[in-house]
Amino acid sequence: MRVAIVTESFFPQVNGVTNTVRHTVDRLLETGHDALVIAPGPGLTSYRSARVVRVRSMALPGYRSFSLGLPDASVERALAEFRPDVVHLASPILLGAVGLRAARRLGIPTVAVYQTDIGGFARQYGIRADAVVAKWVGRIHRRSSRTLVPSTASYRQLDELGVGNMHLWRRGVDLDLFGPEHRSDVLYQHWTRRRGDQVVVGYVGRLAPEKQVSRLTELAHVPGTRLVVIGDGPSRPWLEKRLPGAKFTGMLRGTDLARAFASLDVFVHTGEAETFCQTVQEAQASGVPVVAPAAGGPLDLVDPGRTGLLYDPAEPRSLRRTVATMVGDPELREKLAREALQRVGDRSWAAVVDELVAQHYAAVCGQADDVAAA
Q: How far apart are CA 8 and CA 311, in angstroms?
């Protein structure tokens, strides 16, 4: 099968969309398919054996590291030349809309993957454009051949916009990278300043307003804890000023990230606008109990009292109280971590992308559900 992926983000940008596209391309190539990536530039022009077509872009105001794809005739030219069986629209907003229009003109079916809550993102930057954003997002997904959503919360969100032909497609987790065996006593001792009685509470992710990381200040003085903040972004200076006792590691990748994840005692997520929340899965795969907001994607990933704990994001100090409960009960932490690790054991990226090909690409291409690798 020939698959063209039109994505709003790709390397060198590192985020959930890029991560999903990378794993999708990896598995497509491993199973004998041909892939083309169309992404905003600048950046690499090939990934493994897949060509990456770079299109015109502009930096997002207030978020200079994120490139917005612009209307570009090269999108349709690249699709016409590649002649894909299906066009995969990864988190379509602007460039995705261009890819959708080009695919429709060329008569190519599309699978649109909803991944970013743009309205929620904009609100955290003080931009009130909910109605405009909803109208635009709804139109893209209604015109696509099929829409894939990562969570039941996302399904309800798009259902209210009149989007049909929706299917649940969750994200995978890199089980070859993340695991409890990567826990490092040396790193733990470094973080706790060799105080073995401290519980390490950690956040992993982008330090930016859309992640609502300001809530981490609620955890500044939870007794018996050391707060570790893993990641980088525009909110880091603000957080460092208000959390002088916390450890900031900066952005980590690969085995360094896996080691850091597994060396936490409790993982905390703060954002309410997550359509899925990949870091929750990565923490669970690392054998770390999770505290997450009772909103969005985490509602599907955390079974309260069994695979983690949820806090009420609308209730002041709910995050602090929930973390304190986890910190004060080592048996609860062990139980939640063990059950969550079992739950994510079958969520490999290979299984998830194989499902994408066999069930969703095949359906829009009019092929059998058990389509074989081309």
A: 31
SS3 68: strand
Q: What is the pLDDT of residues 233-263, one digit of tens each?
A: 999 999 999 999 999 999 999 999 999 999 9
343 burial (CB, 10 Å; 0-12 / 13-18 / 19+) is middle
Sheet containing 166-168: give its strands across.
46-47, 50-55, 34-40, 2-7, 86-90, 110-113, 146-149, 166-168
Domain 180-345 superfamily per CATH: Glycogen Phosphorylase B; (3.40.50.2000)
pTM reported for the whole predicted model: 0.88
Q: What is the pLDDT of residues 30-71, one digit of tens each?
A: 999 999 999 998 889 999 999 999 998 666 555 555 566 667
CATH superfamily of 2-172+348-365: Glycogen Phosphorylase B; (3.40.50.2000)
| End-to-end Cα, the chain, rounded Å | 5
